[in-house]
Amino acid sequence: MATPAPARLTVLSGPSGVGKGTVIAEVRRRHPEVWVSVSVTTRRPRPGEVDGVHYHFVDDAEFDRLIENDGLLEWAEYAGNRYGTPATPVRMRLARGLPALLEIELQGARQVRTRSPEAQLVFLAPPSWAELVNRLTGRGSEAPAVQERRLALAQAELDAAGEFDVVVVNDDVARAADELVGLLTAPAPGLHQGTGAHE
Fold first, then answer.
1. Residue 84, annotated as binding a ligand
2. Staple partner for 121: which of 2, 15, 25, 164, CB 3.0–4.6 Å?
């Protein structure tokens, strides 16, 4: 059984509230064979979260060690906590000729683009700005100033869509999930084996 070579690293990113987690959950439901990287974080587990399933939960000292030992493909800080992508599982997956999927924020996607130019960056976009505003403000549990900050950040993230290779519109979760799986398994256009960036 031949697998498409070379295997490709695919990054899914997009603004807060666009439904990245929902699309990833649908990908896993419809295509359980798809491998999604589990991020490492310094934040405390929330109720119901399982270590090694939702995140790898570590303390600051361990996170510092990962950075020092080139153990993270990318990392960023949000709301006083740090999040990153463990490098070893991703590298092992790609070395076996199998695709790998990361769901990360814009800052992390830019780091991956710098370190692994051959990676495929996919931007998940809302059907419209009005729909994204509804998703971000519909919870009604945040102060107006917090909502304003979230909307300003979402606008800045939307403006970065042009930095990505492909834009997938999340107007239907099942369709968006199928489109993402298609991108994961498609051969990389013009990609030459052995010309990737040195890690």
1. no
2. 164
**1 pLDDT higher than 60:** no
pLDDT in tens, 22-72: 999 999 998 888 999 999 999 999 999 999 988 999 999 999 999 999 999
The answer to whether 116 is annotated as binding is no
Question: With contact defined as beta carbons under 8 Å apart, do 26 and 173 qualify?
Answer: yes
Which pLDDT score, from 0 to 100, does residue 139 have? Answer: 63
Rounded distance, CA 129 to CA 59, Å? 37
Domains: count for the chain: 1
For residues 161 and 195, give the distance between their C-alpha atoms in angstroms, rounded to a whole number: 26
* Residue 15 is assigned to a ligand binding site: yes
| Both tokens assigned to 171 | 């107007």
Q: Is 17 annotated as a binding residue?
A: yes
Per the omega criterion (within 30 degrees of 0), is the bond before 6 cis? yes
Residue 138 domain boundaries: 9-185
